[in-house]
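Problem 12. The chain below contains 404 residues. Write out its predicted structure in token notation.
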Amino acid sequence: MIRLEEIKYSLQNIMHRKMRSSLTIISILIGIMAIFAIVSFGLGIRNYMDVMASEAGTDKLFLQSKGVGAPGTDETFSITKDQFEFVDRINGVQQAVSMYFKAVKVEFNKQIKYTYMISMDPKKIEFMQQSFQIKIYKGRQLKQGDMNKAVVGYNYQFDEKIFKKAAKIGDKIEINGVQFDIVGIVSEVGNPQDDSQIYITPEAFEMMFPQSKDKYGFVILQSAPGENPEALADKITEKLRKYKGQDEGKEDFFVQTMTDALATFGVIINILNGVLGIIALISLIVASVNITNTMYTAVLERTKEIGIMKAVGAKNSDVFTIFVLESGILGMLGGILGVVVGYIVATIGGGIAAGAGYSLLKPIFPWYLIMGCIMFATIVGTIAGMLPAIQASRQKPVDSLRYE
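Solution.
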């Protein structure tokens, strides 16, 4: 059992060697700071995905054509009207909506930018906005018959985000040379591409691009209550494949559930976090080596002191405990400071990401992350100090007292 006297004695020894102890703590701090910040961002993105899945609903499915580019970038990359109507009639599909998708040139105040434009069917506006997790932030929704009216993404309302000067409700923008009035601004999605998109009615889209009529960028589906989305995706794939006369495995389309879409995004994030985590762990391994070196040096410096301790009755276990405590305390202090600095770094990083339009990169700091990092640092410090502690505990009193 660890006694209070041993804790006090260990703290005194750490304070007595302030410079060496500080450098050791800093080396641990760097590793824990990196791990804390990386994991906090990973947890934040995971929370964002969970909220999106909860609010958008896991009953959503997405039908798209396969290709080498983004949907809507060319006329061969599309779902035709007859294919859409066929899928809409499949048993288990509660509702479906087709969407045009096109890369366009946008001009405002003599500035030109390129973004994506999506058709938004006013008859199914609520379903579409739920699927995309957007709602009207300012202004109004698109209405049936709107031909030169547009709803724009969240970032248009800020200076220097898309254009030098912010756009507001009532302003006019040119899309591929056609003038539109801004009637609404949607809520923030959390990434620059989605927050720079433009939405118009299908009729307005067909007026601008008559060659694209009945060639949709993608289709959003909703499974009926009680229907398994994964099973429905398989059913749609099979039936549409047969409808198009294609062989299994050679389909020119794919059906993806909301769960699959989020899982794909999650895998990418996990890989990125894993690579960064490995780098952080390497720095922590270096810190543990530094602790071991510090404790070995302390053992050599205090050889005579160890002999005196044993001469007055200290047991091997007492000496072992003192040195392990010292290394554990160094680890714990490095862990605490690492969490504090990691919190500051992650908060600043989240602010910078939000300022750049990536508000989805918002770190969160649950209690188990804080306690886990501190405990991990303490354990690493304790383990790193065990070999020097064993060496110290095995020293013979006579040899220690003779040491110069």
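Discussion. The chain has two domains: 4-52+280-402, 63-262. Students who got a different answer should revisit the alignment rule from Section 12.3.
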